[in-house]
Specification:
mainly alpha; single chain; globular; Cytochrome Bc1 Complex, Chain D, domain 2; 2 domains; 437 residues
Length: 437
């Protein structure tokens, strides 16, 4: 059941009165406040960067050698059926770890826009529909997806085994890969699924013994865990907004006003105040890590009946690599326990994950189908969402705002300031020369 808008507003706004320090002026209490005091709690939360969450489901999550190996694999186009597509093809550093396209293009064209991977380790759920609950689960999916990299786990295991550099790196991190040289036991290509019983990869997979299937699958899982270790290092730095918030909390008005333009400060007030953006784009991450149906307009390239989170929940529960699976390094822990806490209802129809907004100015186009090319178009939509015909029903917070052109420009200025941290280092944006340091 949905929590009412008024209940959410009362619960969050009441926190302002629980001893939250305000960004007052050093000159005294008579000056006009820099920001409306009622939004202090939300502004403070923007600057409260939490520790990177641990991932006990991945024993190599914070292993530096695994992350190095994962970075090499992330850029390696050999992990695709055409030899031309890598993880970095759809999550390219030069495109803000996205691909700049409305719908992602790998071996084929997918049905959704590629979300960026900035700060992905802070999220609870992966993909727009949340069909994975860990980064390593997410990393395995595109490798075998026909529209993305279209590789099979059998081909992956053979690549790891036969390439001396990859084999050495894999052995250093995970132990020796399986010997897949026996073609009678290990066909050229094989993977479980797809649903077509006549699919040759499925037939080849079914002919393998359970032990051999297990050993080959372990390679896919370990590759996913190495890539996830790398992706955990893809983190944003401090922005003008962070510098503003730090000064604001310290009561240093002069420094705060020098950190953000007056236009961007106005945008922050709209974002945290009357715009109610913070009810979904909350905290330092600028995402509540959950799912909402914002009633996007139909566009010709996107399935108008995409159910989003509704089918994502079933895919997560049935997933081969969810956090409670045999492949998890913590199958009964806190992350795995989330599976039992999800209620599948029609409320999830048409819901998609709330994207984080840090570096958002570098990640167009926007929304799960690349509906909008620019931030100006995004803000214009939130100003006047128009009618919505389904599936599901639109989030109740979305309504006409009556913002002027100046108001909308101020919101864009704030979002742009939330994106101005230093450019990432080459250690994030390029492939290392070798799979091992």
């Amino acid at each position: 059941m949905s929590v009412s808008r008024s209940t959410v507003q009362i619960a969050l706004l009441s926190a302002v009165f629980v001893g939250c320090a305000r960004g007052s002026d050093k000159e005294g209490d008579t000056a006009i406040p820099l920001l409306d005091p009622d939004i202090d709690v939300f502004v403070h939360a923007l600057g409260d960067r939490p520790e990177l969450p641990e991932d006990p489901t991945n024993a190599w999550a914070d292993d530096e050698t695994a992350a190095w190996f994962g970075r090499f694999l992330y850029f390696d186009t050999r992990l695709s059926s055409t030899g031309e597509v890598a993880c970095a093809s759809c999550h390219a550093p030069v495109e803000g770890f996205g691909d700049g396209l409305p719908l992602s293009e790998g071996v084929g064209t997918t049905g959704r826009h590629a979300p960026n991977i900035w700060n992905a380790a802070y999220q609870r759920w992966m993909f727009w529909d949340g069909r994975c609950d860990t980064l390593w689960c997410q990393a395995t999916g595109p490798i075998e997806s026909p529209g993305e990299m279209d590789f099979t786990r059998m081909e992956l295991a053979r690549l790891i085994f036969t390439d001396p550099d990859l084999s050495d790196a894999y052995t250093e991190v995970f132990g020796a890969p399986p010997d897949v040289s026996d073609r009678d036991r290990f066909p050229m290509t094989a993977r479980p699924g797809p649903s077509d019983p006549e699919d040759p990869d499925r037939i080849a997979w079914s002919a393998m013994t359970e032990t051999d299937q297990h050993d080959v699958t372990a390679v896919l899982v370990n590759v996913g865990k190495a890539i996830a270790a790398y992706e955990r290092t893809v983190l944003t730095g401090d922005t003008s907004v962070d510098r503003f918030v730090t000064a604001f909390i310290a009561g240093d008005r002069a420094t705060a006003e020098s950190a953000l333009s007056a236009e961007a400060i106005r945008g922050l007030e709209l974002f945290a105040g009357e715009g109610e953006c913070v009810f979904c784009h909350s905290g330092w991450l600028t995402s509540n890590k959950e799912f909402h149906n914002i009633g996007l307009p139909e566009v010709a390239t996107v399935d108008p009946f995409d159910t989003g989170r509704y089918d994502g929940i079933n895919a997560l529960r049935d997933g081969e690599f969810n956090a409670a699976s045999m492949w998890s390094d913590d199958p009964t822990g806190a992350i795995a326990s989330r599976l039992g806490q999800i209620a599948l209802t029609t409320e999830q129809l048409g819901q998609f994950r709330t994207p984080a907004l840090r570096r958002v100015a570098h990640n167009g186009p926007y929304m799960h189908g690349g509906h909008f090319d620019t931030l100006d178009e995004v803000v214009a939509f939130y100003n006047d969402p128009g009618d919505y015909e389904g599936p599901g029903h639109r989030e109740e917070l979305l309504e006409q705002r009556g913002w002027s052109d100046d108001d909308q420009a101020a919101l864009v200025a704030f979002l742009t300031a939330l994106s101005d941290d230093p450019a990432p280092s080459s250690a994030l944006t390029t492939a290392p020369a070798t799979p091992l340091p």
